[in-house]
Specification:
With about 400 residues, the protein is of the alpha/beta class. It has two domains: about 250 residues, 4-Layer Sandwich (Metallo-beta-lactamase, Chain A), CATH 3.60.15.10; about 140 residues, Flavodoxin domain (Rossmann fold, 3-Layer(aba) Sandwich), CATH 3.40.50. The chain is about 35% helix and about 25% strand. It is built from eleven helices and 20 strands. A seven-stranded mixed β-sheet has the order 1-2-3-4-5-6-7. Strands 13, 14, 15, 18, 19 and 20 form a six-stranded parallel β-sheet that branches. Helix 4 packs across helix 8, helix 5 packs antiparallel against helix 6 and helix 7 packs across helix 11. The longest helix has 20 residues. It is elongated. It starts with a strand and ends with a helix. The structure holds MU-OXO-diiron. MU-OXO-diiron binds next to loops.
Length: about 400
């Protein structure tokens, strides 16, 4: 991989991470993820955001810098928009290799430099509207963007080029390969990155939708020509596409969401699944599209992405040891953390000797402000009358979603 020129003074650098390891120790990345950094050259040289020591990313970054004639020791400033270790894990080694570099971040970011990496010298705290003059017409302006998605986060803007170095905001899962710019990818590839940007948002950013909206509002005063995030595509031709996409994602929590249904189900011996099949027939009667995920067979990362965008939810699971089917309890706890609010919902499921899922379910969904259709629960296998009722419930849910 090589550095890509955004302008004759700004370069995009990236390391593609391909690993079985999980992002944040939680989320699978079977299609990889890119860690993007940026080099800005004036009379002084600044590097914006770093990498972690993950599948040799530091070596890749160093080689890309070398390809444009920059050694680590040539870097005067290291700007850290965000301290999560996917962007800073290499910091202690980097600082040891270039002891004179000045590290620039928000005050909260500087505290994290100290606590994570025990670096105490060569630190400069900045705040909104501060700037760093690199000389020769290149200026970096800083704007705090708290809670997008950590409290210390800021973004950096270069006015002469209109490049916004947005860190995690506007990012996506998915490796990039030898191309980095939005205009270099086919419609099919864009469809892939759109799916992966939603999954990334639902997994990483969704708890902070209000702050995303605030940040985008704040940044609307800038003349943004290029969105340069720390993961995924660099948007130089259609930056509005990713801004509008993120605004839409930030609205999914409270609504409006997409008029479709996400079905999440688990079944021990097939009796809940029989009931679910009747509900699905009812949804299909109404011609509404749906996605379907079985837990725990499918990773919750993918469940979250589809649930996050869908106005309707079906939660189908049996009672297990007087309580909920445990993998579903985990899913619902994440729905609460990730603000899957204001949905139309239907719960169904079978029980063996006695029910019990109801109480735990109702406690878990109480904060989510869902409008629920009367649930269907039954002992053992569903009979014909139950299947007829379940099909009607599927139709009723679909109609509610269409009317929403
Ligand atoms: Fe890409 Fe929040 O780190």
């Amino acid at each position: 991989m090589k550095a890509h020129a955004i302008t004759d003074r700004i370069y995009a650098l990236h390391a593609d991470i391909e690993t079985d390891d999980l992002f944040e120790g939680i989320w699978p990345i079977p299609e990889g993820v890119s860690l993007n950094s940026y080099l800005v050259k004036g009379a002084k040289t600044a590097l914006i955001d770093l990498v972690r020591d993950w599948t040799e990313a530091p070596k890749v970054l160093e080689a890309e810098l070398s390809g444009i004639g920059i050694a680590l020791a040539d870097i005067d400033y290291l700007v850290l928009n965000h301290l999560e270790p996917d962007h800073t894990g290499w910091l202690a080694d980097f600082k040891a290799r270039n002891p004179r570099v000045e590290i620039i971040s928000t005050a909260k970011g500087i505290e994290l430099v100290k606590s994570f990496y025990k670096i105490t010298e060569g630190l400069r705290a900045v705040q909104s509207r501060d700037s760093l003059d690199l000389g020769e017409g290149m200026v970096l302006r800083f704007e705090e963007a708290p809670n997008v998605h950590w409290p210390e986060t800021m973004v950096t803007y270069e006015p002469s080029s209109g490049v916004l170095f947005a860190c995690d905001a506007f990012g996506s899962y998915g490796k990039l390969g030898d191309r980095v710019f939005d205009d270099e990818f086919s419609p099919e590839e864009h469809a892939f990155f759109e799916k992966e940007s939603l999954r990334y948002y639902a997994n990483i950013v969704a708890s902070f939708g209000l702050f995303v909206k605030r940040a985008i509002q704040k940044l609307s005063a800038l003349d943004i020509k290029v969105i340069a995030p720390s993961h995924g595509l660099i948007w130089r031709t259609n930056p509005k596409t990713i801004i509008e996409r993120y605004l839409k994602y930030a609205s999914y929590s409270d609504g409006p969401q997409e008029k479709e249904i996400c079905i999440v189900w688990g079944s021990m011996y097939g009796n809940t699944k029989k009931g679910l099949d009747a509900v699905i027939a009812g949804i299909e009667d109404e011609g509404l599209s749906y996605t379907i995920h079985r837990v725990p067979n499918e990773d919750v990362s993918y469940v979250l992405a589809d649930a996050y965008k869908s106005a309707g939810l079906v939660i189908a699971m049996p009672t297990y040891e007087y309580k909920m089917f445990p993998p579903m309890a985990y899913v619902l706890s994440l729905f609460e953390r990730k603000h899957v609010w204001n949905r139309k919902a239907l719960r169904l499921g079978s029980w063996g000797w006695v029910g019990g899922a109801k109480k735990e379910y109702e406690e878990l969904v109480a904060p989510l402000k869902w409008e629920s259709i009367e649930p269907e629960e039954w002992a053992g296998a569903p009979d014909e009358a139950r299947l007829t009722a379940l099909r009607e419930k599927g139709r009723a849910l679909a109609r509610k979603v269409k009317e929403a």
